[in-house]
Write a structure and sequence with these properties.
Layout lengths: L2 H17 L11 H5 L2 E11 L2 E5 L1 H13 L3 E16 L2 E14 L2 E15 L4 E10 L3
Parallel strand pairs: 1-6
Antiparallel strand pairs: 1-2, 3-4, 4-5, 5-6
Length: 138
C-alpha cells in the first residue's frame, strides 16, 4: 500500500479513536468501539506532574466509558486539531494535538494536550500499538 492509502487508514483510525469518547446528541460510547482501535497487547501511558500511569486498553477505557455513560460527564467531545504522521513500511507514528470539552458534574470542563500514537498495519487495517498522552497544564 502506498503512503497515501496508509495515511487515509490512519486518519480514519484516529478519528474513530477520538469519536469513541463523544457522548453529545445522545451518542453512547461503547467499549468495543474503543478496543477495536488497538492491538491486543497495546499499552497506554498518561504523563502528568505526578509521574507516568500505565494502562491496558481495558484499564484505560472502562472508567472513561463509565464517566461518559453514567451522567457525570455530559456533552463531551474530544477532537484532534492538528497532527503529524510519519509512515515507515507498515509502522507509523502520529503526534496529535487535541482539545476536549463538556460538562463535568454540571460545570464547564475543557482542556487540551498531546497524544503520541504508535501504529501498525495488521493487514486489512491499522491499529494503535501504543498511546502516550499528556494534558496541557490549566
Amino acid at each position: 500500500m502506498d503512503d497515501s492509502g496508509a495515511q487515509r487508514k490512519i486518519d480514519a483510525l484516529v478519528a474513530n479513536f477520538f469519536s469513541a469518547f463523544d457522548n453529545r446528541d445522545g451518542a453512547v460510547p461503547r467499549l468495543a468501539d474503543l478496543i477495536n482501535c488497538f492491538t491486543d497487547k497495546a499499552t497506554i501511558v498518561r504523563r502528568s506532574d505526578s509521574g507516568a500511569e500505565l494502562y491496558t486498553v481495558r484499564e484505560f477505557a472502562l472508567p472513561r466509558i463509565e464517566l461518559l455513560t453514567q451522567g457525570a460527564l455530559l456533552r463531551f467531545h474530544e477532537k484532534e486539531i492538528s497532527s503529524t504522521t510519519q509512515i515507515f513500511d507498515g509502522i507509523a507514528t502520529r503526534t496529535s494535538r487535541y482539545t476536549k470539552s463538556g460538562l463535568l458534574d454540571g460545570n464547564d470542563y475543557s482542556g487540551s494536550g498531546t497524544k503520541c500514537f504508535q501504529l501498525v498495519d495488521l493487514g486489512p487495517d491499522w491499529r494503535i500499538a501504543s498511546l502516550a498522552w499528556v494534558d496541557d497544564n490549566a
